[in-house]
Design a protein that fits this description.
Length: 179
């Protein structure tokens, strides 16, 4: 596969379905080698599965190169492991797409602490957990032309009923990105 991303190496979090899957397929189609990160859980972050493997197989069937990673972006260890998967599989890293997310929609009146924390941990802290090892790698190795793409939402700008946790996380991601 040849394209504008030829010889680039990308990590995409939350890449087993939806937007993340689409990004992986597009990147691979443009020549990038891809780490497909996904726990394989449900939209609320519970459970596990092998959706990352299916995306890897799709990429390989198209003639691209990809590996799966199943670590959680919600922990520092998970972020480090995702980065290490990329380095071990491909020897370098050029692009990080922070896409992983979960939904635990509920009004603030009914929201429990674990519903708040889960969304903040995956969305906002997940961006930190995955970006930090990559930023250190860029600086320490003096790697040029690297990119971090962070996914936010209009829910972070305007709010959305029943998504206090999600809106707060997405607004935080916008601030994180600008900083």
């Amino acid at each position: 596969m040849m394209g504008v991303l030829k010889d680039k190496i990308a990590v995409v979090t939350g890449a087993g379905r939806g937007i993340g899957r689409g990004i992986c397929l597009s990147f691979a189609n443009q020549g990038a080698k891809v780490v497909v990160n996904d726990l394989g859980g449900d939209r609320d972050g519970t459970g596990e599965g092998s959706v990352a493997d299916a995306v890897v197989e799709e990429i390989k069937e198209l003639g691209g190169e990809a590996v799966a990673n199943y670590d959680s972006v919600a922990t520092v260890k998970g972020g480090n492991n995702i980065f290490q998967t990329c380095i071990e599989a491909f020897g370098a890293m050029d692009i990080l797409v922070n896409n992983a997310g979960i939904l635990r929609d509920r009004t603030l009146y009914k929201m429990e602490e674990n519903e708040w924390d889960g969304v903040i941990d995956v969305h906002l802290k997940g961006h930190y957990n995955c970006s930090r090892p990559f930023v250190r790698y860029i600086k320490d190795s003096n790697r040029l032309d690297c990119r971090i793409i962070n996914m936010s939402s209009v829910s972070g700008l305007y709010g959305n009923f029943g998504q206090t946790n999600y809106g707060a996380a997405k607004a935080g991601i916008a601030g994180f990105s600008r900083s």
